[in-house]
Each structure stands twice: as C-alpha cells, then as structure tokens.
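Support request, please re-run this one:
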Amino acid sequence: MVLDVLKEQIVEILNVDKNEITEKTTFIGDLCADSLDVYQIIVGVEDALDISLEGEDVETIQNVGEAVLLIEKVMANK
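Re-run finished. Output below.
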C-alpha cells in the first residue's frame, strides 16, 4: 500500500512510467528529481496517508525503498 501511494505521487510529480519504479530506484540518479520534486512527492504522500514526516528524516532518503521504510515507521508510531 505505501509503495503504491508513493509510486502514484512519483508518477504525478515526475511524469514517469509507474512500471519503471522499484524500491531500488533512486530519486536523484534514476528519476532525475531535484529537492523540490522530492519535497512535493513527500507532501503528497503525507496528505494521502494523513501522516507527518520529519524534515531531517526526509533529507536522508536516497531511494524509493528507504522512503517506504520511513513512511511505514511513521505510520506504525501514529
């Protein structure tokens, strides 16, 4: 579920093919996202899942899998 929500936001913001996104896909290297793109993706995920992610945690995210783990951790502590 978290991966699907994240993929939806990535597709919407970056206009990439959903099937090309895996947990190993990097935001900057593979998706050519900049920091504003990542911020918009995270805000979309926060809104969709009714959660709030800490800025310093978000800054450490390199790939989709790391984002999923962080989101799942926040949801578990909600």
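The chain has one domain: 2-76. Residues 1 and 68 are 10 Å apart (CA to CA).
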